Amino acid sequence: MIDPGKPWQNAKRMKIRWKEFVKGILQRAGNVPYVEAAARHILSQRKAPSAPSYETPYEIPGVDLIRPQTGISNGLRLNLFVPSINVSDSFGGITTAVKLFEQLGNIMQTTSDVRLRIITDTRIIDDSVVDLAKWAVLDSNHSDHRYQIVERKDPLKQTIPFSRRDVLVATWWPTAFRAENLRAWQERSFGRPVAPLIYIIQDFEPAFYPWSSWYAYAEGTYTDGANTIAIFNSSLLRTFFEKHGYSFLRTYHFEPRIGTWLKAHLNPSAAKERRIFVYGRPSSPRNCFEVICAGLREWAQSSRGAGRWAIISAGEKHANVPLGNGLEIRSVGKLSLPDYAAMLNQCAVGISLMLSPHPSYPPLEMAHSGILTITNSYGEKNLSSWHENIYSIPRISPEEVAKGVERSINLFEEDNAVGVKGASRVPFYLRDDETEECLYDVARIITTLE
After folding, report:
1. Which listed residue, 27, 246, 349, 422, has the most CB atoms within 10 A of its CB?
2. Are 298 and 446 in contact (CB under 8 A)?
3. Is 330 in the same domain as 369?
4. Is residue 57 part of a domain?
């Protein structure tokens, strides 16, 4: 019997019982996507799962603190903390944060001598979201290069210099957690006030986890906002935070807009094919991939016209998912921008779910490329008011997904150009790629700090 008061004895017992537990899962797995494969993989391993260690202060991956040292430069410098700048690791959030960071730097450089530094947790191994001809990956921590990249190669030993005039910019809660600790170190070390933390908030990130240490750490980056300038990705997300009582020193927001390159390569008037485009990210729980699979399976087994359609999943590579009646979800993984644009130009129907107050980019990109798009509402979020091609299901369930797919294919069969005719209801989404207005005010606050 498991005794809650004896964790280590429990761990020892679990070393004996874990395979029996996994075998039980395997017996019940049936045709549930991935569960059977995962169980068989675990059973193939020789070693039992190890008990966790609690020997370091923050025993949660991604929450290790940066080791600072006193910098020798007193110049103004913007510092962006991101998990990676590799294209292969980057979805909309990292790309947006880097773009805003560079825009803020450009504004500040018109009136001040300011340097920019990106501090990343991941080594650059492929194409980057920044121009590496402009940005220098430096070994010297004390370089005065205007555009610097520092890779955290050995977080437990590596020290990074910071001065009083280093301004910290975070996105994704672990980077904000580190930045808040660094900012407190700056004030202790230099004995004077320092710039507020600039926090680019792109989702309600505690909801990525069950109620837990992770949830507490993530929410903690919002609960003491007296020294934080919050910049929200969309008015919808800002409203959600305000309604839930989170407050900050200053609060701004910007609205989503289509990327310049993608906008140039989309062809909304292109003839659509009988293809259903799924934004498939099984490792991202908020994208509800299991519900999409179940909904498409229900549709495939009940719709008389299902056999005429192909289903393609892009976003993250996964095993193909059988749906019955000869249909399957075929995974093509993470696409390059040219391949993604080609996919948007071809498909007639799209599915992208997001259990979040953030509007999410894929359904907007789908709809504006002429795709009949199925997504979900959440609280005050109802993207059907943003584009005529968007159908927001009232709740995330297989039945609602199946109904949305059947509705969309019937509309397409009646008029193959129905998605091409759909109109946008949010002019801000298609505007040219200009600097976000809120950044001018942020720049003024930072550059006037003594």
Report:
1. 349
2. no
3. yes
4. no
CA distance 316 to 331: 8
Query: What is the per-residue pLDDT across 113-135, written as a single tens digit (0 to 9) for each?
Result: 999 999 988 777 777 677 777 88
CA distances from 272 to 19, 242, 366, 417, 421 (A): 49, 41, 12, 8, 12
How many alpha carbons fall within 13 Å on the CB side of residue 177? 20
The number of distinct structural domains making up the chain is: 3
pLDDT at 254 over 50: yes
Beta partners for residue 69, in sequence order: 161
φ and ψ at 222, to 5 degrees?
-105, -20
Q: DSSP assignment, residue 387?
A: B
CATH code for the domain in which residue 85 is found: 3.40.50.11090
DSSP state of 173: H
Residue count (the chain): 450
Give all strands (DSSP E) within 257-315, no chain letters: 273-280, 310-315
Query: Rounded CA gap, 194 and 201, in Å?
Result: 21
The token pair that represents 268 in the structure block: 């909304």
Instruction: Convert 278-310 to b/e letters by CB count within 10 Å (16 or more is b).
Output: bbbbbebebbbbebbbbbbbbbbeebeebeebe
Asked whether the beta carbons of 246 and 240 are under 8 A apart, the reply is: no
Q: Which DSSP symbol is given to 212?
A: T
d(CA 442, CA 448): 10
Q: In the numeric block, which tokens belong to residue 228?
A: 């934080």
| N-term to C-term CA, the chain | 62
- Cα-Cα-Cα-Cα dihedral of 354, 355, 357, 360, to 10°? -10
Q: Enter the pTM of the model.
A: 0.84
Ramachandran region, residue 315 (left: φ > 0; alpha: ψ -120 to 50; beta: rest)? left
Same domain (yes/no): 179, 299 = no
**Greater model confidence, 1 or 233:** 233
Does a structural domain hold residue 53?
A: no
Taking the CA atoms of the chain, what radius of gyration do you get in angstroms? 24
Domain with 22 in it: 7-43
Closest CA to 172 of 315, 287, 62: 62
